[in-house]
# Entry
Amino acid sequence: GALSFLLIGLVSCAADGRVLGTNEIADQILSGHDGLELTRDGLLRTTEENDRPLEQLLQEAGKRKRNGQSFNDVLAVRRGARKRPLTLSIRTTSMAGPLSGAGNGVLIMIMDPALPVRAIEAELRQLYGFSSMEARLANLLIQGYSLEECCDELAFRRSTGCTHLK
# Structure
């Protein structure tokens, strides 16, 4: 749940790439078939060629896991349409649970720079003492909107936006 709140996908795999479990963010990323996808056999694979094959990293993680060693690595996964790559953090786990493969799996955390950053307005008000409108404006700015786009979205003039921004 915490990783989903932070917009980080979580996939648990066996060393052969067979997916054992996912969180909702990983499901969203995988369903886009843009960088990562599941085969009909339930195997995790990349959709583009990468400098280091994901399959090779998963096999190495599984091999180290069987030898009682830990494995931590990071992989940038290429995507189409001139998008920034996905970042995968691959590590072995010794935890038992629904996404850990009973302690035998490899955990993959997926960070997608294309996912919007979502701040909750109530938290912005509490943390920074913002008014409701200041929090709404800050939330849009965090998501990458320009001040002009924010003013259009919130239906007020640029001068009002500048006042709330101050």
Observations:
- Helices lie at 2-5, 24-31, 54-66, 121-128, 132-142, 147-154, 158-165.
- The longest helix spans residues 54-66.
- The longest strand covers residues 86-92.
